[in-house]
């Protein structure tokens, strides 16, 4: 290793998802069910708002906390949802930026952070950067949030519980009762509760529930990337107790500085866009892929997001099955990127119906 490289960088690898993306760039016309981003473009009214901002000279730094119209619009929505809570909000450089700021603001070296396995790939890496200790709680085979398992993982060193519902990579949504139990556990133990809600608008069978409804100290991280197809625009937001938000802002000031200003103006318009047609389309895509694979694959039917996390057929494991699929031109993600186990693989159904049908046909062929 080069002598200039910091030791902390050796504690985690580059994202395995990026390696699959690199493969995708080399394959000619692959069946791509790997990418975790919407397959529709940014709605035109949002594009127009960002272009207008650029052309009217709104290209400088914004305030670190974000432009006032976006924060005011968000606060109006937050206060309507949590009317009796004292919450503040700021605009982060994507939800990934919000997650990093949360870790840097609250996790000391040696502090333990609980989250479910399977997990979003960034969680363990961000924890290692901040010196925290990951405590993954096994949620196989159904990927449900089990409050008893969370409670059993709590120790005197537990600093944070990190929730993600709907979840990446499983698409599983926690129930109201499960979220309330974990929220009350965190409150009773004085443990920070962080809720990653980037897929909050992708709910297919029930209404979205946040643990912040049951614990007013919950730190909520959300954004526009997935819901409005703005993944490259890097506009997220975080709301929670004012003292925590102020600390996160202090770190943002010396790191990300601010989210891109023109795209914040786009996000102001995004607050007015009706996404019902897109959500209905994803519900139909969810049904298309689940119905197509139900006879040959084991999986928990996702209630949200746009992912399916099936068990790989046979005994070779998830990574070996994914290699075989990629050799046949089908791009999917091995489950061991998101988990301590190598038994499953992730499909993104944020794709055209034609691509989904082709993928289903090839997966069923590979399953024998």
Automatic annotation (TrEMBL):
Which top-level group of life is the source organism from? Bacteria
Is this entry keyworded Nucleotide-binding?
A: no
Segments forming domain Aminotransferase class I/classII large: 29-360
Entries under Pfam families matching the protein: Aminotran_1_2 (PF00155)
Assigned keywords, A-Z = Aminotransferase, Pyridoxal phosphate, Transferase
GO BP, one annotated term = amino acid metabolic process
Task: Report the sequence similarity comment from the record.
Answer: Belongs to the class-I pyridoxal-phosphate-dependent aminotransferase family.
Question: Protein name, please?
Answer: Aminotransferase
- Name the lineage: Bacteria, Pseudomonadati, Planctomycetota, Planctomycetia, Pirellulales
